[in-house]
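Appendix B. Extra example for self-study. Work through it before the problem class; the solution is given directly after the inputs so you can check yourself.
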Amino acid sequence: MPFKTPRKPAARPAPRKGRRKAVPEPYHHGNLREALLAAGIQLLKEQGAEALGLRELARQAGVSRTAPYRHFESRDALLAGIAEQGFVKLREVLLEARHQHESDHERWFLEAARAYIGFAFGYAEHFKLMFGGYMKYEPGQHTSLHDAGNGAFQTLVDLIVASQESGLVMKGDPMAVSIAAWSTLHGFCSLAVHKRLDFLVENPELLSKTADLVARTCLEGVRARK
Amino acid sequence: MPFKTPRKPAARPAPRKGRRKAVPEPYHHGNLREALLAAGIQLLKEQGAEALGLRELARQAGVSRTAPYRHFESRDALLAGIAEQGFVKLREVLLEARHQHESDHERWFLEAARAYIGFAFGYAEHFKLMFGGYMKYEPGQHTSLHDAGNGAFQTLVDLIVASQESGLVMKGDPMAVSIAAWSTLHGFCSLAVHKRLDFLVENPELLSKTADLVARTCLEGVRARK
DNA sequence: CCGTCATGTAGACGACGTCAACTTATCGCG
DNA sequence: CGCGATAAGTTGACGTCGTCTACATGACGG
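Solution. Structure tokens for the complete assembly:
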């Protein structure tokens, strides 16, 4: 290599100085897979999904451009790995709403809705990656991404089932009702992160009023009819 | 009206065979801008937005790779032009629901919802292009795309305002209420076209039941409280 | 008839994803 | 302890893409 551009001194974690191996630090880089995911998550937040190139991520991790192929079979697979982290996080915030308000189903419902909206606005680019058309989302491919997505969805289904049993939410196929409720939340978030509600975002007060209205609409839409 | 694709001859319209000029055939190609949009719409339907490359569209229109720059300042602008056609079409189907059921607001509401869902499923790739992150959607850029989008949205606002006046839909800022209602529809469609509801689509009967539930949920969510 | 401008063309550049072939470091086994 | 197998990383190449610049062409107005 003619010149090695100093690029990223903060890349490789110095191959085991001390002789005792507290942590394995297995191979050349140490843990390139995790480093790529971390760099990807950072870059996603800063510059959006378009900026997530294999070569760019490799650069950020301080390795050569094809090194990622040892850990991800394609760019799609790398994006899927990043998106997967998003679903894990989304599930966490939904579970938190549950643990804080599980006894009051209406409160649980509304807080879960707010948590979903909060996630979408707080991790807008991640949200777009998770639900947009940035990578293939076919069954059979990226199974752990599907698992993570289903895991997040399951927290909504749990909420709906519990709310049906307590009489808050209408009876009917829990899947269908969950989707109907989810759709309201998701539609609002999807429109917002894709800048289709700019006339709202310019007005933070109206935005938060609308977000609250959406959360209530979400509940009223599936509330048990008297 | 580039939306209908009556099977283009796929190449240049033969530079003046006969000597008499029946149709003007104005410039070199004739009407490259419309040809590019038409080819784009066709390709979008067949292969999705990823396939919409400037060079590929030029190929389909039978011109050299940089010719499109005479009519669109960038790939983004070309995508915006194609998306714009989608908003025009969407507005049309929403207006049709209006004209057929304008006297019965509940019917109008439900048919508009079905029309929206029908558009999303019938023109899934177009829908993704219109609402996904495939191009910049900043205010000030692609103004005619914004106009078309706002035109389609306005049909929903009109519906909400009329329904508020007749007491079908809750009072409140018409924008906020429109967005809440729109969100339900849009979320369902967005999830579906992005293949997040595959367990539904495998089951056409459940799918249509859920679509109906979503349309009703959309109304119940904003119905005037008794 | 001629100049001008809109329209279309050709070449080049740097980015990208991916493949094949190569090198290097680590670990398991005798 | 040493050695081969193999996981991890590198280099070079190929074809694609969007876009820039310079150039060619054809239609229309004076």
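Self-check: The domain at 84-222 of chain B is CATH 1.10.357.10 (Tetracycline Repressor; domain 2). If your reasoning did not lead you there, revisit section 3.
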